[in-house]
Amino acid sequence: MRTYKLTVFEKTGKQLLDETFTAETDEEARGKGHAMLEEKEMIQLTHRLASPAGKLLLFHS
After folding, report:
1. Which InterPro entries match (predicted)?
2. How many helices (H) and strands (E) would you count in the chain?
3. Apex CA 3: angle with CA 27 and CA 25, to 5°?
């Protein structure tokens, strides 16, 4: 299992969410991250999901 990091920000730069979770693959992590954003109603806010290698899997500004 690999550890991924999801962060969400307001337009002012204030951090609203900083969560880590594990997944087997980047594709699985992308799905989990997207589901978390929708569940928390943060999908339209600035967010990013980074892999352990620093690769951006989800990004919205």
Report:
1. YhzD (IPR025544)
2. 1, 4
3. 20
pTM: 0.92
CB under 8 Å, gap of 24 or more: what pairs does 41-44 form? Answer: 42/8, 42/16, 42/17
Which range marks the domain in which residue 25 is found?
2-60
What would the pLDDT profile of 2-60 be if each residue is shown by its tens digit?
999 999 999 999 999 999 999 999 999 999 999 999 999 999 999 999 999 999 999 99
The domain tally of the chain equals 1
Which residue, among 18, 2, 16, 15, has the nearest Cα to 55 in the 3D structure?
2
